[in-house]
Amino acid sequence: MSLFGNPSYQYRETYFILFEEDQRPSPDAFIAAIAELGDRYEIKEIHKDSDEQLESMTVVSPSDFAGMDITYVDGEEVLEQVGELNEQFRTTTLTGDEMKKIARIGKCRARFDILHFEEITTSEDDFLDPGSLLTVVEKIANLCGGVGIDRESLTII
Question: How far apart are CA 56 and CA 20, in angstroms?
């Protein structure tokens, strides 16, 4: 079940990981990568497509009051987004490392959408730690040789 359907979670933001389609990790590799992050992260649900490839998964980090729905996307939608991002980044000042990553997205034909959610609690002492999202984005980007991007701020991860 997506976290959108869970009243205990509120949507916060979406990050993207753009990558070359032939670098799509297997579901087992994906599960192993999340497991490497430690017991703070729990995989709640995994969906595979008809080819047994990862279609979506839900990961939560209860200690960080965070949840993430991760979905695979490919095709025309990704091509359009790559073109839009290239246009947007033309007017942005980038570091050398960021420029190298942006140069790579021109070859990307697939992406993972990572929708970030905050667990809603009644305690004022409980608050979302965004570090869990950044940790997952970095891990998945490394797994598929991709480029992580914060959709709102156009920050390159």
Answer: 18
Separation between Cα atoms, residue 127 and residue 125, nearest integer Å: 6
Q: Is the domain defined by 14-156 classed in CATH 1.20.140?
A: no
Residues with Cβ within 8 Å of 33's Cβ and at least 6 positions away in sequence, in order, are 25, 139, 140, 143
pLDDT beneath 70: ranges in the chain: 1, 122-129
Largest pairwise CA distance in the chain: 46
Phi, psi of 5 (to 5 degrees): -90, 0
DSSP-based three-state secondary structure for 100: helix
The domain spans of the chain are 14-156
d(CA 133, CA 64) in angstroms, rounded, equals 9
pTM, full prediction: 0.89
pLDDT of residue 49: 94
